[in-house]
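Dear V.,

Thank you for sending over the compound details. I've combined the ligand you provided, adenosine-5'-triphosphate, with the protein sequence from our construct and run the structure prediction for the complex. I'm sharing the raw inputs here so there's no ambiguity about protonation or stereochemistry in the SMILES, which I know was a concern on your side last time.
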Amino acid sequence: MTTRLIDLKHLQKKFGKQTVLADVSLHVDAGQILGLIGPSGAGKSTAIKTALGMEVADGGEALVLATHMPNRALLGRIGYMAQDDSLYDALTGEENLRFFGRMKGVKKDTLAANIAHVADVVDLTPDLKKRVSGYSGGMRRRLSLAIALLGDPELLVLDEPTVGIDPALRRKIWHELHQLRDAGRGVLITTHVMDEAELTDEVALLLDGKVMAYDAPAKLEAQYQVKTIEEVFLKAEGVG
Ligand SMILES: Nc1ncnc2c1ncn2[C@@H]1O[C@H](COP(=O)(O)OP(=O)(O)OP(=O)(O)O)[C@@H](O)[C@H]1O
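Below is the predicted structure of the protein with adenosine-5'-triphosphate bound, written out as structure tokens.
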């Protein structure tokens, strides 16, 4: 039986008179990477925040780990990386990881090894002893991603995790995401990098508050009779 980690059913969200999510249904199962793509302002972050209970839905239903969020008890089972990094600037990278690790309930005797692993995934090991105030934008993103990976959560929700990250490291991060997927974790990831969308198991294209295309990358390319997800995106937007 598949375990449904995220289940959004006809989700609606308005900000004042602006309807950002008109009707969004999508799901992430254990052992699956779902890529959420769409033009800037399409509502990708809003869909994530509403799913996680950081915004209140105006209609439909959002279930995460079969529960209506927010639910404090579940936070340790979810690795969330927001678009804006919330880090403690006065602390070192390692101190941030230790703090968030404890918050997530990572056991004391495994925390050091866990920190070493997640720091390695994002190539931050040499910078762990530096204060975050001296980090570059890309380093901050990498630390945020490392924090999301702490505690080996069942579900990763990553909002543009690879912005400002160079191609070699991006490849390493995707390798880790695929390993986590193969180990049964679920991943919801938003991206502007269309090459990355090809690396997902399914892609949902958000346009005008609705899911306009939703399938495995190869199936979408066949359906739109194109060779890349970028072309699917452009065709669906009416540009291609
Ligand atoms: N808290 C808020 N209050 C009012 N409007 C908001 C709020 N959050 C988002 N919006 C609006 O909702 C729309 C969708 O924003 P959102 O950040 O979800 O888009 P996005 O697809 O994630 O964009 P990007 O790819 O640029 O990150 C935008 O028009 C934005 O201005």
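A first observation: The radius of gyration is 18 Å.

Warm regards,
I. M.
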